[in-house]
Amino acid sequence: MDAVALEGSKELVSYNPATGAEIGRVPLASGKEAAAAVEQGRIAFDNWRKTSFAERKRLVMKAREVLIAEMDEIAALISRESGKPFAEALSMEIVPVLDLMQYFARRTEKLLRPRRIGIGLYALMGRSSKIIFKPKGVVCIIPAWNYPFSIPLGEATMALMAGNTVVIKPSELTPFIGLKVGEIFEKAGFPAGSVQIVNGDGSTGAALVEAGPDKIMFTGSVATGKKIAAAAAKELTSTVLELGGKDPMIVFEDANLELAAQAAVWGAFCNSGQSCSSVERLYVHESVADTLTKLIVEKTRALKQGTGDREDVSIGAMSSERQVTIVEDHVADLIASGAKIEIGGRRNADALVRNERRFDADQASNNSQVGAASADEGVRAPLFYEPTVITNVNNEMRAMQEETFGPTLPIATFSTEEEAIRLANDSEFGLTASVWTRDRSRGRRVAEQIEAGSVCINEVLYTHGIGQTPWGGFKNSGRGRTHGREGLLELVDPQHIHTNRIALLPDAWWMPYSANAIATFRKMSRTFASGSLLKTAMVLPQLIKRVRELWK
């Protein structure tokens, strides 16, 4: 079931997508409250921007200690509210963000250290230039529901280390996880107003954008990203947009097929396929297609699906009814177009039956809060969809072009390297891709021709978890970068400082102009502007003549 805003109320209700049980309710912020949060962030920014990197580091590392101390409790909350297995809450949300926090706590000062710019021959005239970096101000973070903990916590850490304050609008599907992010910063001792959590729906996010923060970090759909970009343009607000993906995996005939099959299963089905960088298209060389497909089906059959609190569960529930419906639509389209379902292809009602006793217990414990209609809906429409492997597909099929965002793995074949590259690039998206081959030279050659922000060779999916590397895509997969130095630079404004260390004489290009000035400029265009020291020496007599003219 989805989290919903109750009609006529100011509450947001969160449900466990695996059981249908109500988790709880949070206040839904109004537009005025959202705007007030941005203003409060501006007030806090005046002081926070003046803190030293050492103080910011101390607080971030303290927040990290809070997270470690409450790790199991937080992982359980992530699993309960998002539907993902407890194991994935640890491995894909908590571990990566812990690494990101320590990295930027320790390295931001160095990454944002002022740097000198080489200005060529102007340096011989006693000039020098350097770049310093200034925090932008209030950073508004609007994360997606698929990684509701690691995305906002990681982006907030980077923004704070750069000297900004933060307003986070969690997904309406995961409001309690958002509150937990704010609680971590609060327990660590961050100043009031430096990190604020504003829960709400789409109208709340729109109000935050209209309030004119200094930076917007959005993760979500292309359609919503375009709306945010259009709204932000009214105030010329800078944005980073991490949008959709339809990520290809290319497997050549010389690849380690056992390893590639295992990677494909994880890359396609982790988080029930609800990752922007999930493997949504697998292209395998025709000579090994049958072998690879059999390996993938065998490994898929061994996976257990159920509620995320079970240690042996690899695939949990999907996050919303809407998302399950999209998966069903895409699978139906593939079948109608001639594709073959090798395994899966339907909702897994058995996953709910296996957990029926637990489901009843959840409902009983929340009897006073959850209406009968909500409980019935959870039973009628369980949010478990079987991991699904599909063959006999091609790029002409609609489901090979639109983002599915679910546990499906369509497998197509190719015959040549050129065809594999063409098929992989045949998409409006370009977030990540992977190339599988024992030939490192071919791997690099193919990777460099793929239109994607990140390309892995003999690896898949996990690079979002490497906070040291930039994250973002080409084409409709978004604009800008998060993570890495490139992501850090999105959170600051570069300021150029230029110095004349020998301020004794007027510059030759100053006013008033004259025939002598024009003669000097003509000479400079052929000599000084060439960048050659030898040629520049030829203009010195003319420059001296011009400076004397101005000195009079």
Describe this structure as you would to a colleague.
The protein is of the alpha/beta class. The protein contains 20 helices and 21 strands. α2 crosses α6 (175-188) and α4 (86-111) packs parallel to α5 (150-161). 50% of the residues are buried.
Any descriptors?
alpha/beta, Aldehyde Dehydrogenase, Chain A, domain 1, Aldehyde Dehydrogenase, Chain A, domain 2, 3 domains, 20 helices
Q: How many extended strands? A: 21
- Number of folding domains? 3
Strand order of the largest sheet: 13-14-15-12-11-17-18
CA-based shape? globular
Protein topology:
Blueprint: E1 4-5, E2 11-15, E3 22-27, H1 31-48, H2 53-69, H3 71-82, H4 86-111, E4 115-117, E5 127-135, E6 138-142, H5 150-161, E7 165-168, H6 175-188, E8 195-197, H7 202-210, E9 215-219, H8 222-233, E10 238-242, E11 247-251, H9 257-269, E12 279-285, H10 289-301, H11 321-336, E13 340-343, H12 349-354, H13 356-365, H14 372-380, E14 388-391, E15 408-414, H15 417-425, E16 429-430, E17 432-436, H16 440-447, E18 454-457, E19 474-475, E20 478-479, H17 484-489, E21 492-500, H18 515-526, H19 533-537, H20 540-551
Parallel strand pairs: 6-7, 6-9, 7-8, 9-10, 11-12, 11-17, 12-15, 14-15, 17-18
Antiparallel strand pairs: 1-2, 2-3, 4-5, 5-21, 10-20, 13-14, 16-19
